[in-house]
Amino acid sequence: MVLLRPWVESDIDQLVDACGDQATHRYIALPDPYTRADAEAYVARTRREWHDGARAAFAIVDADDPERVLGAINVAVFGGVGNSAYWVAPWARRTGVATRALRLLTGWAEGPLGLGVVLLEIREENAASRAVATAAGYHESGRIEATTATGKKGGLIYTRLASDR
Q: Does the structure show a pLDDT above 70 at 152?
């Protein structure tokens, strides 16, 4: 079982360890190397974005050990639409963490936040993330052809409508 909670300063070392993993860099634009200063800036930014209502970013943690970071998930809000993203720390991969976290986030986005749709942008070759999206009730809805900050091109759009519940 997992919980979603805001990022806190005591997460910084685990954040550095997780974001230093090169497999994480394959699909997410992160500074390389990922430093303590990067993690500190990220935690501070998550607080500002939460306060401004622009994005809600959560640490995915083990329900039995809420100090142990298993990954990250967020949702940026644009009117009635949310754009979500997630990653899982190397030590928690292939355990169902991302699927459980995405289900929790989606329920919160559709419920208390009142979003009508949540979308995910997933690189086509990221089979694990595509499987997570499908398992969490998302549907492949289209393709995006654009160069990202990492220089990687395109991806797939997965969506979940609040009416899909």
A: no
